Amino acid sequence: MTNLGGLSPSQRRAFLAIAASGRSDVESEVAEEVPVAFVYGGKPHVVMMCTPADLEDLALGFTLTEEIAASPADIRRMEVVRHARGIEVQMELAPEAQARVADRSRALAGRTGCGLCGIDAIEHAIRTPRRVADTGAAISARAIARAGAALEAQQPLNNATRAVHAAAWANADGELVFVREDVGRHNALDKVIGAMLRGAGLPGHASAASPASPASPAHSAAAGFFLVTSRASYELVQKVAVAGAPMLAAVSRPTGMAIRFAEEAGITLVGLLRGESANVYSHPARISE
């Protein structure tokens, strides 16, 4: 996890702990969140409350999964600039991508990773999900359980603060390759997708892409599946569909719209992943014994 200019994703804070046995003064790590503005072509687009780490991954993933840019090559320049009260990620886009930004007219501030905040037109939010290509490859229930069991150990910020979400991409064997954390669940998933495009995986893993020649998200994501430590909402299914992955697994239950979107997109949606048990809400044939 990379930090920005002295901004830490967590701070140690003192507080009063109250319990039946009495009161005590203690200290622990507290997750930080800061306003991060995405600025395209000099024009602010949206402000999200984010964990101040891996912001390049977040900006790249957000720009791709929101379908502002069709490929990483549409982002001609990116710079992270710290201000007194927040951070700007300034990007220069190809003309076609910049035109899409202008069409969205999404220049309002959102709450913590809320996904919908700031969109002033329903059709821009509830986008018809892409259909994920069906390669016929199956993912075993054991691989899903393996990835879920391994995820907690790859969440240092949440293990310290118990206040942030994580998202991950695992290969078909259930081995975690990319993991990112953020106070916003949408942000965490965008960070993972951005990390895949930048090739910034976990130590000991070969890069799925390189900054010099980034792969498309579909090229990398289709070979495995995504996991999230939250409920599965329709926005997460949308992002997984854009990335081209065949499966999304969540530790909590999905919403009804998420299930409908997953059915339409051809995505296997797994919820309530706990140990070796899980619920499969759509396209269960993709999961083997």
Commentary on this structure:
The protein is built from nine helices and 15 strands. With 289 residues, the chain is α/β, with parallel strands linked by helices. Residues 106-112, 115-122 and 207-215 have low confidence and may be disordered. A six-stranded mixed sheet has the order 10-9-11-12-13-14, sandwiched between helices. It has a five-stranded mixed sheet with strand order 5-6-3-4-7. It has a two-stranded antiparallel ribbon with strand order 1-2.
In short:
The chain is of the alpha/beta class.
Task: Using brief descriptors, characterize the structure shown.
6-stranded mixed sheet; alpha/beta; Ubiquitin-like (UB roll); 5-stranded mixed sheet; 2 domains; 28% helix; 289 residues
Shape: globular
What are the segments in which pLDDT stays under 50 over at least 5 consecutive residues? 106-112, 115-122, 207-215
Helical fraction equals 25-40%
CATH domain fold name of the largest domain:
Cytidine Deaminase, domain 2
- Which CATH architecture of the largest domain would you pick? 3-Layer(aba) Sandwich
Output the structural class.
Answer: alpha/beta
* CATH class descriptor name of the largest domain: Alpha Beta
How are strands sequenced across the largest beta sheet? Answer: 10-9-11-12-13-14
Quaternary state, please? single chain
- Measured between the Cα atoms of the first and last residue, the distance is 35 Å
Annotation field: number of helices = 9
Kindly estimate the percentage of residues that lie in beta strands according to DSSP.
Answer: 25-35%
The CATH superfamily of the largest domain turns out to be: Cytidine Deaminase, domain 2
Mean pLDDT over the residues: 86
What is the total tally of β strands? 15
